[in-house]
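In this section we walk through a basic example: taking a raw amino acid sequence and producing a predicted 3D structure, encoded as C-alpha cells. The instruction is simple. Fold the sequence below.
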Amino acid sequence: MTGMHQERWQLRLQNLIKAQYRLAKACSQESYNELELAGLVQTFEFSFELTWKTLKDLLNYEGFDVASPRSVIRTALEANHLSSEQCETLLDALIKRNLLSHTYDEQNALEAQRLIVKHYAPIIADVMHYLEKKSGE
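The resulting C-alpha cell sequence is shown next.
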C-alpha cells in the first residue's frame, strides 16, 4: 500500500489520542449534571467513531477491504489487533451507541454513564495504546 494510507491511519490516530484524552478526563468525574452527562456521551461518540475509523485505516493499509464498523471490528480481531474481549465490547458499544444518546431519559442517562465509564472508555484507551505502539514500529 502507499504511504498515504500509513499517513492517514497515523493522522487519524493523533485525533483519537486527543479524543481519548478528553474521554478519560470526562470519565474521571464523580458525578454529572445533565449537561455534563450529555457531554460525556458526545465525547464517547467521537472517541468510538475515531477508534473504529483508525482501525479501518490501519486495516486498509495492511491490505484488508473493510467498510462498515462491524466488519472493521471483526477483521481487527482476525488480524490480531483486538482481543476477543475488546472486540465484544466494541461490538456492544456499536449496538448501544444510538440508545446512549437518549440522555433526556434518566434511566438511559444513568445506564449510558455506567457503560461508558466502566466498560467502553477503558477499552477505547487500550485500543488507542495498542495503536500508538503499532504506529511506532
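Looking at the output, two observations stand out. Residues 3-135 form a domain with the Four Helix Bundle (Hemerythrin (Met), subunit A) fold (CATH 1.20.120.330). The chain has one domain: 3-135. In the next section we compare this with other chains.
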